[in-house]
Amino acid sequence: MREKKQILIADDEANLRRVLGAQLQRDGYDVLMAEDGEQALATLAENHVDVVISDLRMPKLDGMQLLKRITASQPELPVIIITAHGTVDTAVEALKLGAFDYVTKPFDRTEFKNVVDKASRTAELRQREGEMAERGLIGQSPAMLSIYSVIEKVADTPSTVLITGESGTGKELIARALHEKSSRHDKPFIRVNCAAIPRDLIESELFGYEKGAFTGAVTSKPGRFELADGGTLFLDEIGEIPVNMQVKLLRAIQEQEFERVGGIKTIEVDVRLIAATNRDLAQEIKEQRFREDLYYRLNVVQMRLPPLRERQGDIPLLVEHFVKRFRERLKKSRVVGVGDAAMEVLLAHPWPGNIRELENVIERAMLFCDGERIDVGDLPPDLRVTPPSSPGSHAAVASARRAEIDEDDDEDLGEEPTASGEIGLKELVREAAAKVERELIVRALQQTGGNVTHTARLLKISRKSLQTKMKELGLREARED
Ligand SMILES: Nc1ncnc2c1ncn2[C@@H]1O[C@H](COP(=O)(O)OP(=O)(O)OP(=O)(O)O)[C@@H](O)[C@H]1O
Ligand SMILES: [Mg+2]
């Protein structure tokens, strides 16, 4: 990774370039300069740039055109627009086109620095996210972004990582990403599923055996530790490993040496260890099923993968990702996405099986889908109705009430005309409120098994207005009461 972030300044005023450039260098950035938009594009083609700062009025290619070209070719690259005082309209226009932010001349030094620092942090996050997506790791929620930054920090260290998380949250995928991002990536990644190996075979699986060590050992065989030499050993479902094996494992990890079963020679290896479990190891320790010393040895860095219900915001991205994947695999090129109503159902489901469950649901829905978009009817029936005890339903009702209040406040704002017909705050608020409203109604409907009367009571609105709203939002009544 680069030490310093590189910033491109595009401005036709030599003096401004010089002053800004000097300031950015003092703030710890590397700086590239361009006199016009064309030069800026040429510089971008040849250099890695983290942030662009561009004036609007420039010869050849102006700032707005430059912005358009950048958002089309490198949408992850943040562009900060420089505007003269009193040209807020153009600044707003630039933001709509995808500019990261704008600064007005004359510059306030601190404000300028803040905007650039923020853009550079954003650039880093976006680059990292892009890189993770290439590895098949999808998600932009704060929880996933912080997982990415831990991967970045620990991937290329020898430290043991313990990945915890419910079933289907992506533990194996993360383990592979850690390996791929380390300098061991061209060495083996060996996975041992501790749950799948019979108890009395674990030792010989892990450490190998010598000829004649037990009946049937007609040749000698290296174990997984040896196979992983120089690379990464991934001990999946570590919580399932029998206590008597845990002592041997601890020694092998600590000393990086062991003996094969039936062997006397000590074998040394260089192995990076990653372990994963969906059990609560602290509880296992209390119940004496897991050794505390092994736990501390494994738990040098812990990565807790959030369940999908804690990062609902990632659902649309994941859905898009899986639709793309199964379009090819299932030869369903006609299907382009998921309809709004079906997406609401997906957003409201609690996903006890996490991403694996979502993946399976999308695969199944693609098979059933005859149109261009997956419809509610293509989803498995048990997804369309969630059992009444679904988590978050009380919160849903509470925020439903809040949403109603917000709507009233919205009315009190009055009709403020917005500058030159831009999309105003009011409209944005209305759109956001409608989205929240829809989500809450879907959730409440699921909670009551589609019973409109009960749903209306739950949401504290009349049955009639619920029906009107459902009609407006294109929600069908699942069942008449
Ligand atoms: N962030 C993600 N982006 C895209 N796909 C993901 C993500 N996380 C997991 N998946 C997919 O979900 C499925 C389950 O992931 P994985 O096998 O890594 O989960 P796990 O936590 O190891 O589950 P288990 O505890 O059941 O073994 C895989 O097909 C994986 O590709
Ligand atoms: Mg797994």
UniProtKB/TrEMBL annotation:
Boundaries of every Sigma-54 factor interaction domain copy: 137-367
Biased composition (Acidic residues): 405-415
Gene3D superfamilies: 1.10.8.60, 3.40.50.2300, Homeodomain-like, P-loop containing nucleotide triphosphate hydrolases
GO molecular function: ATP binding; sequence-specific DNA binding
Segment forming the signal sequence: none
Database matches in SUPFAM superfamilies: CheY-like, Homeodomain-like, P-loop containing nucleoside triphosphate hydrolases
PANTHER family linked to this entry: ALGINATE BIOSYNTHESIS TRANSCRIPTIONAL REGULATORY PROTEIN ALGB, TRANSCRIPTIONAL REGULATORY PROTEIN
Keywords from the UniProt entry: ATP-binding, DNA-binding, Nucleotide-binding, Phosphoprotein, Transcription, Transcription regulation, Two-component regulatory system
Region described as Disordered: spans on this chain: 379-422
Annotated ranges, domain Response regulatory: 6-120
Organism: Sandaracinus amylolyticus
Annotated InterPro entries: AAA+_ATPase, AAA_lid_NorR, CheY-like_superfamily, Homeodomain-like_sf, HTH_Fis, P-loop_NTPase, Sig_transdc_resp-reg_receiver, Sigma_54_int
Any single Pfam family the record assigns to this protein: Response_reg
Residue(s) carrying 4-aspartylphosphate: 55
Name of the protein in question: Response regulator of zinc sigma-54-dependent two-component system
Keyword set includes Lipid biosynthesis: no
Keyword tRNA-binding in annotation: no
An annotated GO BP: regulation of DNA-templated transcription
